[in-house]
Amino acid sequence: MAILVSDGSPAKAISDILPGGSDSEYRWTNQKPRVQCWLEDDGPWMLAVQVLAVGEVMKKTGPQTLTFQVNGVTVGSKLLDEPKIYTLEFPVPRTALVSRQPAKAGFDVDKVLVSTDGMKLGVLAKSVGFRRASR
Question: Which domain of life is it from (predicted)?
Answer without folding.
Answer: Bacteria
